[in-house]
Amino acid sequence: MYKNLRITVVIPCLNEEQGVQKVLAEVPAFVDEVIVVDNGSTDRSAEVAHQMGAIVVSELSRGYGRAYKTGFSRATGDIIVTLDGDHSYPVDALSYLLEAFMHCRVGFLSASRLPTLTDDAMSLKHKIGNRVLSFVMSILFLRWVTDSQSGMWVFRREALSHMKLTSDGMAFSEEIKIEAIKNKKIGFREMSINYSQRIGEKKLRPWRDGLANILFLFRKRFGL
Ligand SMILES: Nc1nc2c(ncn2[C@@H]2O[C@H](COP(=O)(O)OP(=O)(O)O)[C@@H](O)[C@H]2O)c(=O)[nH]1
Ligand SMILES: [Mg+2]
């Protein structure tokens, strides 16, 4: 519990046995429930997550968005916090983000990686890609967003009932922010966090996912 609110952490996980162990070891004691959504990892991710006390949910259909939707449907907390299983997002910033979330009085807070990014945390290609995607989303949805691809969010679970989440892939990250931005009942903010180099192999395919995410933005904006 954090200030009388039940906290659920949801982590999508595809072959992250080293990263997920480190992430779970650092989850603060006030977190009530940790859900790791395993997408058929072929390494020991599921076993490690289970041993570390997480609820392991197995989702057989692949996809980052698919994994999140399944994880959210199992969450029972008042507040959901998300992060990757690769130890790139700061687990130790959870209380800072929850304080900011309550202070801002919004329904959805996104942790932004780009304003304080160090050189070693992200390749130049990814930095450019993330900035282009964030810029296109800002123009299309008339709201300045510094990091449309961030995977660390804090939101009221109840906000999900006001969202229409269609993406099963990497575009889920931008879609959930768009849904929060569009819905005045939810309210959207960003806060800076320190992002670091991931542990293990990247699952993102930069060109393919980047292009798919751009096309998704146009389809979502113009209802195609
Ligand atoms: N469950 C699940 N997790 C995925 C899938 N693809 C990626 N992930 C996880 O989602 C997170 C984000 O992927 P990552 O490669 O770190 O992408 P990036 O952070 O955008 O560069 C990581 O924790 C991955 O293990 C998937 O198809 N299913
Ligand atoms: Mg990652």
Characterise the protein shown here.
There is one protein chain. By secondary structure, the protein is α/β, with parallel strands linked by helices. Helix content is 38%, strand content 16%. The protein has a single domain (7-222), classed as Spore Coat Polysaccharide Biosynthesis Protein SpsA, Chain A (Alpha-Beta Complex). It has a 7-stranded mixed β-sheet, sandwiched between helices. Strand 2 (33-38), helix 2 and strand 3 form a beta-alpha-beta unit.
What's the structural blueprint in terms of helices and strands?
Elements: E1 7-13, H1 17-26, E2 33-38, H2 45-51, E3 55-58, H3 64-74, E4 79-82, H4 94-104, E5 108-112, H5 124-141, E6 153-156, H6 172-182, E7 188-192, H7 206-222
Parallel strand pairs: 1-2, 1-4, 2-3, 5-7
Antiparallel strand pairs: 4-6, 5-6
Helix pairs in contact: 1-2, 5-7
Bound molecules: guanosine-5'-diphosphate and magnesium ion (MG).
The site of guanosine-5'-diphosphate has 18 residues, from strand 1 and helix 3.
